[in-house]
Design goal:
This protein is mainly alpha-helical. It folds into 2 domains: about 80 residues; about 30 residues. Helix content is about 80%, strand content about 0%. It is rod-shaped.
Length: about 110
């Protein structure tokens, strides 16, 4: 049964979306059925929680990558793009102001 739970982890997001309490409850059921000892149950819970967190991190990374890819394909400017353009505009405004100050007749 432990192997089945571990295989379940490898197959999908099952434990990635389960809370620690839900995992503990599932493992407690295995203890009650005599399929896992109390000592093994603590190790199993820790392992499943850790693997769930790893899966969740992988999912988050994949979502972020796909989102960035989509933004690139749609040509939607990022926050960094907008900041860069704002700095360029500020520089150009400063340069224009300097030119206007030194233009005859603007004294």
């Amino acid at each position: 049964m432990i192997d089945l739970l571990k295989k379940g982890l490898a197959l999908g997001l099952g434990f990635a979306i389960m809370s620690k309490e839900q995992i503990e409850k599932a493992v407690d059921e295995l203890v009650k059925k005599g399929e896992v000892s109390v000592t093994e149950s603590k190790e199993l819970v820790n392992e499943l929680v850790q693997k769930g967190e790893e899966q969740q991190q992988e999912v988050n990374t994949k979502i972020q990558e796909q989102f960035q890819k989509l933004l690139g394909e749609l040509k939607i400017p990022t926050h960094a793009d907008i900041e860069r353009l704002e700095k360029r505009i500020a520089n150009l405004e400063n340069q224009l102001g300097n030119v206007q100050e030194h233009t005859p007749g603007n004294d």
